[in-house]
Design goal:
Number of strands: 4
Oligomer: single chain
Helix content: 10-25%
Radius of gyration: 15 Å
Strand content: 15-25%
Strand order of the largest sheet: 1-4
């Protein structure tokens, strides 16, 4: 992720965290993790095309 962020003119900010959707009882091939790395657009580089789109809201699971 860090390489993609730098390549696309972004700067990491804030705290990176991981959310595990399942646990060690699952086989390694089925583990599902969300990694959140907040970023800001560098001021001297035009926004990446993907970042120009309006974000799609994601439902929050109960208890999160």
């Amino acid at each position: 992720m860090a390489g993609w962020i730098e390549k696309n003119g972004l700067q990491p900010v804030g705290t990176v965290y991981e959310h595990y959707y399942n646990g060690p009882e699952y086989p390694e091939s089925e583990l599902l993790t969300m990694i959140v790395m907040p970023v800001l657009q560098a001021s001297n580089i035009p926004p990446h095309p993907v970042l120009r789109r309006r974000p799609t809201p994601h439902p929050v699971a109960p208890g999160c």
